[in-house]
């Protein structure tokens, strides 16, 4: 751990190190997301195992059996199987943690260049230390938190992509201090020395303060000079940085938590069932001990030959309770846990090898990093999803353009490619002038910096939207290729035109627009681009027709989820500009009320404009995202989107990915104070109740500032109740820890529901770890998320198969394994109670002691395993087509009623098996020679019939008979027959093991009565099941039975199933979905008509305008435009 100075700040030296030990005062850059290490494995493993009550119970039984003469079943019949079970569990945990360690090692082994003795040396991330000088090249991740010293760009600027940290799609601009920005070679850097004083490590990603002292002069640096681990360098050839924080001291990892020990709700429910059976066990022990006391008091005084028992201390009531407690201990199945561990392990292998979740291009597949939560995948009620990189690809494409009454482009092509635009541009009429004007505005009104690299033009931009527009203009032969402080040069249809930049009016989230004043061919023009709402209200009189055309096109774009911008122009006279320019410059230099003065000055110019067009940019969704979300919502799963991006962008993506539809009423919470937030939540809570009564769909949108207040005090309950009622929730502008807090809040409020979190970035790690189940999108971007997750998938749409198929199957299978394990143990071991009635409540076992121990370990070990691995409750194709089956599986699986039914059947079967066997053997003479077989003849026959019955029961409970299931069930019966022959012949002669069994196999199998009973008794016992199953199928059919019957009645699919079926065109599917949601409702059907208030609110947020500028960047937009010269040669940094 690092040691800080007395003032709690971090102090260290840059350059030639005078204190060779300073680097050892801080933690290394090696990271670990493992659950265990060499020291913590045993205590953490034992803690996890003994959170399960059955393990505590069997430990107690194993210890009690060591008391001499107290155990009727021997001293080691529990201890040995219990140690084997713990060993198997330990090996599984080690195997899974080794996979985590390998993933960590992959991250730790990433390469980076470190300055050593004046030379750049390639080393691994784990070797990076505080105070090192490192070089990071374009498109590379930062290995630690760095102080930006210099870069390849002018004035030490660098573009940083932080979507992996905060989810924002725009690039951040960082700028080095002027005292270090000129160090652009390794020689200069090797001679540099300084003292750093900065704040201690913290998790606040937007706050940082420090001082750098060079030659005795101290300079302050802050968040604008800090490059965070996990962020990526973009559009910048290289940067030099000094390492500030390493490893788990970095802000990214400070926002992460230690890998938690997660337990599934099935395990919790199983614990409750085990507690119930424990009390049943205690009750049976007390009843049996009382029966023993009653029998002794009534019979021993008359039996003089048993008089010695009257004074036997082992005949006391407490001793009897202890004896019967050990005798009946197997009512709680000792094999349950190891059976579940085996089943879960192979279920995880199924997930890993599912070819339907494999991506050929990246050679990546689904990975189950833990198998303890397989059943949780089948019980998910809430999904918390990141946006950037998870739902979207963060790739912007210019798709459509509206000019006048004409709409150019189509939705099928990957990018804009309509040749009609250029044809119309060359027509020479008024419309062609508007086309050229729009293309020029796309090429001029922005903060993009061009770079000619190896003959190829590359655009550097903090806004991916602006870069998309510039590329779009270039594709239409208006190419922006040179930026200088006062002008830009564009190739317009083959001829270079120089356009002078006179003034820049910056974009802000309040203005929702950006303007530039240019001089083009001697004419002064105002170019403005922005959201439709702010542009339309600033147009000249008589623009109604243009607005109508544009609105029609915008609605078309909005139906596809495109991000739109409107473009307007105004010609300025020299006199008007000469009058306005000094006023604007004065406002820019103002100290007080600067923002207000700038806005007022801009308003004077941005008026009476002419609308020339609108553009549509597609924020590319990941494959099949809308279909996946619709399928999950059809499965009664609520989907939330948690993102660090802007509200408008988040709402736009929510519509395009089918999380909301146009008639969904949006409840927007965007207040900045606690009181306002509380009032808004109260207002919306009442509104939500009204909407529920009207059966209208509604969703909540809340930003980070409001969320900070919503998660505190009394507002927390209002927020939670409102959020859980919403069909969807969109949380924007969130920090990583806020994501985790929201997940934890939902887990607490929805106690009996499973919360799943899915993300691809390092900012999602805390959320993934806080959820019941964490899913990471694997790949380079999401390596950190995938490493911290419970399951990793290559694409978001695989979540559909992971939950609907693997989740539903695993949940149903595992519940069957648990119920079947309880059933078979009660079926066998409750027979000891019935036998006690006929054995003077003596504690004598009806079965031989080692066959009791072998029942779970060998003879009935395989049926539950094959049930858990090979049973198919419904075909995969069917549940993918009918997602509602997913919710039905949850309702029927592990309910108290289902548990009671299984336990009741176990008791009925045990009664039937014992008393039918007893009746068959009542006269004991079952051979022609007239001999009797003794008590073990009764016990071995009953044992055989139990094994046969529970194996056939497994076949009855299996929804699909496959050869492994049949072989395992029939083979288990045969295994007992073979075992009893070998055991009776061999083991009595080896150290006296099983002496009572000598010759018993021949005695039992030589009786025709036994073979006839083997056919009759199990079948007679299972008739109960056949009758009850038939009644339940008629009265309360299972989801599988309903699906089969429905499938027979309906040969074709309609509604959502037509939409959700795979097609080659996602956009067309979205159109079908939108049309169906907008369709008219019949009488009595669910109304989806939005209220007037809803429509008014939706009008404000209808279109997600295509602005993702960082308005609070280290370098202001005006300053960036004024100080960049793309004609200057860049340093190599070597």
UniProtKB/TrEMBL annotation:
Magnesium found in the keyword field: yes
Catalytic activity of the protein: ATP + H2O + phospholipidSide 1 = ADP + phosphate + phospholipidSide 2; a 1,2-diacyl-sn-glycero-3-phospho-L-serine(out) + ATP + H2O = a 1,2-diacyl-sn-glycero-3-phospho-L-serine(in) + ADP + phosphate + H(+)
Coiled coil: none
InterPro entries registered for this protein in UniProt: ATPase_P-typ_cyto_dom_N (IPR023299), ATPase_P-typ_P_site (IPR018303), ATPase_P-typ_TM_dom_sf (IPR023298), ATPase_P-typ_transduc_dom_A_sf (IPR008250), HAD-like_sf (IPR036412), HAD_sf (IPR023214), P-type_ATPase_IV (IPR006539), P-type_ATPase_N (IPR032631)
Residues spanning the membrane: 274-296, 316-336, 826-844, 850-870, 899-921, 933-956, 963-988, 1008-1028
A Pfam family matched in the record: Cation_ATPase
P-type ATPase C-terminal domain residues: 786-1037
Keywords: ATP-binding, Cell membrane, Magnesium, Membrane, Metal-binding, Nucleotide-binding, Translocase, Transmembrane, Transmembrane helix
CDD domains reported for this sequence: P-type_ATPase_APLT_Dnf-like
Positions annotated to bind Mg(2+): 386, 388, 760, 764
One GO BP annotation of this record: phospholipid translocation
Gene3D superfamilies with a match to the protein in the record: Calcium-transporting ATPase, cytoplasmic domain N, Calcium-transporting ATPase, cytoplasmic transduction domain A, HAD superfamily/HAD-like
GO cellular component, one term: trans-Golgi network
Designated name of the protein: Phospholipid-transporting ATPase
């Amino acid at each position: 751990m690092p040691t800080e100075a007395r003032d709690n700040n971090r102090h260290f030296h840059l350059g030639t190190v005078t204190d060779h030990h300073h680097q050892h005062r801080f933690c290394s850059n090696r990271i670990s997301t493992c659950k265990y290490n060499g020291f913590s494995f045993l205590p953490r493993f034992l803690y996890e195992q003994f959170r399960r009550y059955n393990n505590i119970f069997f430990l107690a039984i194993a210890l009690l059996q060591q008391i001499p003469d107290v155990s009727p079943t021997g001293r080691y019949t529990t201890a040995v199987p219990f140690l084997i079970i713990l060993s198997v569990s330990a090996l599984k945990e080690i195997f899974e943690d080794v996979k985590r360690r390998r993933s960590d090692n992959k991250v730790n082994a990433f390469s980076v260049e470190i300055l050593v003795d004046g030379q750049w040396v390639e080393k691994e991330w784990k070797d990076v230390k505080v105070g090192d000088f490192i070089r990071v090249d374009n498109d590379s991740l930062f290995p630690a938190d760095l102080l930006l010293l210099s870069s390849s760009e002018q004035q030490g600027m660098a573009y940083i992509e932080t979507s992996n940290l905060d989810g924002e799609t725009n690039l951040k601009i960082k700028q080095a201090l002027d005292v270090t920005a000129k160090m652009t070679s390794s020689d200069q850097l090797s001679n540099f020395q300084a003292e750093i004083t900065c704040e201690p490590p913290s998790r606040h990603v937007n706050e940082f303060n420090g001082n750098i002292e060079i030659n005795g002069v101290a300079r302050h640096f802050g968040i604008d000079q800090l490059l965070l681990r996990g962020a990526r360098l973009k559009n910048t050839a290289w940067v030099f940085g000094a390492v500030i924080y390493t490893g788990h001291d970095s802000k990214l990892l400070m926002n992460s938590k230690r890998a938690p020990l997660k337990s599934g709700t099935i395990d919790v429910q199983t614990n409750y069932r085990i507690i119930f059976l424990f009390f049943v066990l205690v009750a049976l022990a007390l009843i049996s001990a009382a029966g023993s006391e009653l029998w002794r008091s009534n019979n021993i005084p008359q039996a003089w030959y048993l008089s010695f028992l009257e004074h036997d201390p082992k005949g006391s009531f407490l001793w009897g309770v202890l004896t019967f407690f050990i005798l009946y201990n197997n009512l709680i199945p000792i094999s349950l846990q190891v059976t579940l561990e085996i089943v879960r392990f192979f279920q995880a292998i199924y997930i890993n090898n599912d070819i339907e979740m494999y991506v050929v291009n990246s050679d990546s597949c689904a990975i189950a990093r833990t198998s303890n939560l397989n059943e949780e995948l089948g019980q998910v009620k809430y999904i918390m999803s990141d946006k950037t990189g998870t739902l979207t690809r963060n790739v912007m494409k210019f798709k459509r353009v509206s000019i006048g009454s004409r709409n150019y482009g189509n939705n099928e092509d990957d990018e804009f490619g309509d040749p009609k635009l250029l044809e119309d541009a060359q027509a020479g009429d008024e419309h062609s002038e508007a086309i050229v004007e729009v293309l020029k505005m796309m090429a001029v009104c922005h903060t993009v910096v061009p770079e000619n690299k190896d003959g190829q033009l590359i655009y550097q931009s903090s806004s991916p939207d602006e870069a998309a527009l510039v590329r779009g203009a270039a594709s239409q032969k208006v190419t922006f290729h040179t930026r200088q402080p006062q002008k830009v040069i564009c190739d317009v249809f083959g001829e270079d035109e120089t356009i002078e930049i006179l003034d820049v009016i910056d974009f802000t989230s309040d203005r929702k627009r950006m303007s530039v004043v240019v001089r083009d061919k001697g004419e002064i023009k105002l170019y403005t681009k922005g959201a439709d709402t702010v542009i339309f209200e600033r147009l000249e009189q008589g623009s109604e027709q243009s607005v109508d055309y544009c609105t029609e096109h915008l609605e078309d774009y909005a139906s596809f989820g495109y991000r739109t911008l409107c473009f307007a122009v105004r010609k300025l006279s020299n006199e008007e500009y000469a009058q306005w320019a000094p006023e604007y410059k004065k406002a820019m230099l103002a100290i007080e009320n600067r923002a207000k003065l700038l806005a007022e000055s801009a308003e004077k110019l941005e008026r009476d404009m002419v609308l020339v067009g609108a553009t549509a940019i597609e924020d590319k969704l990941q494959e099949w995202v809308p279909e996946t979300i619709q399928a999950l919502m059809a499965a009664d799963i609520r989907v939330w989107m948690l993102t660090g991006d802007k509200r408008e962008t988040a709402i736009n993506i929510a519509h395009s990915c089918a999380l909301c539809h146009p008639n969904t009423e949006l409840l927007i919470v965007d207040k900045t104070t606690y009181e306002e937030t509380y009032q808004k939540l109260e207002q919306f809570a009442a509104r939500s109740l009204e909407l529920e009564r009207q059966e209208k769909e509604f969703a909540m949108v809340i930003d980070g500032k409001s969320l900070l207040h919503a998660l505190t005090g009394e507002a927390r309950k209002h927020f939670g109740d409102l959020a859980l009622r919403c069909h969807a929730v969109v949380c924007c502008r969130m920090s990583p820890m806020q994501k985790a807090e929201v997940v934890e809040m939902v887990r607490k409020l929805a106690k009996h529901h499973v919360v799943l979190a899915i993300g691809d970035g390092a900012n999602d790690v805390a959320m993934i770890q806080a959820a019941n189940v964490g899913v990471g999108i694997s790949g380079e971007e999401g390596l950190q998320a995938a490493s911290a997750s419970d399951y990793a998938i290559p694409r978001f749409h695989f979540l559909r198969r992971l939950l609907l198929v693997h989740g539903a199957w695993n949940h149903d299978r595992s519940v069957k394994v648990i119920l079947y394990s309880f059933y078979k143990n009660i079926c066998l071991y409750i027979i000891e109670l019935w036998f006690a009635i006929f054995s003077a409540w003596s504690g004598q076992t009806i079965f031989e002691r080692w066959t009791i121990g072998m029942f779970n370990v060998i003879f009935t070990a395989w049926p539950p395993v094959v049930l858990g691995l090979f049973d198919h409750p419904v075909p995969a194709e069917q549940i993918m087509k009918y997602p509602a089956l997913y919710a039905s599986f949850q309702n029927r699986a592990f309910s108290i009623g289902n548990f009671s039914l299984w336990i009741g059947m176990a008791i009925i079967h045990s009664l039937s098996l014992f008393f039918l066997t007893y009746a068959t053997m009542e006269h004991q003479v079952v051979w022609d020679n007239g001999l009797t077989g003794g008590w073990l003849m009764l016990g071995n026959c009953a044992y055989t019939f139990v094994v046969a019955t529970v194996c056939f029961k497994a076949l009855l409970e299996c929804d699909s008979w496959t050869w492994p299931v049949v072989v395992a069930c029939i083979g288990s019966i045969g295994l007992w027959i073979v075992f009893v022959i070998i055991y009776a012949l061999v083991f009595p002669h080896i150290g006296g093991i099983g002496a009572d069994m000598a010759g018993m196999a021949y005695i039992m199998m030589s009786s025709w009565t036994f073979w006839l009973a083997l056919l009759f008794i199990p079948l007679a016992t299972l008739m109960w099941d056949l009758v009850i199953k038939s009644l339940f199928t008629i009265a309360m059919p299972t989801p599988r039975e309903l699906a089969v019957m429905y499938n027979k009645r309906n040969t074709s699919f309609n509604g959502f199933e037509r939409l959700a079926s795979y097609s080659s065109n996602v956009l067309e599917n979205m159109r079908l979905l939108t049309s169906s949601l907008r369709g008219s409702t019949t009488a009595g059907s669910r109304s989806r008509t939005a209220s007037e208030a809803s429509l008014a609110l939706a009008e404000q947020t209808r279109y997600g305008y295509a602005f993702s500028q960082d308005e609070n960047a280290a370098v202001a937009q005006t300053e960036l435009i004024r100080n960049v010269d793309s004609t200057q040669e860049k340093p190599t940094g070597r």
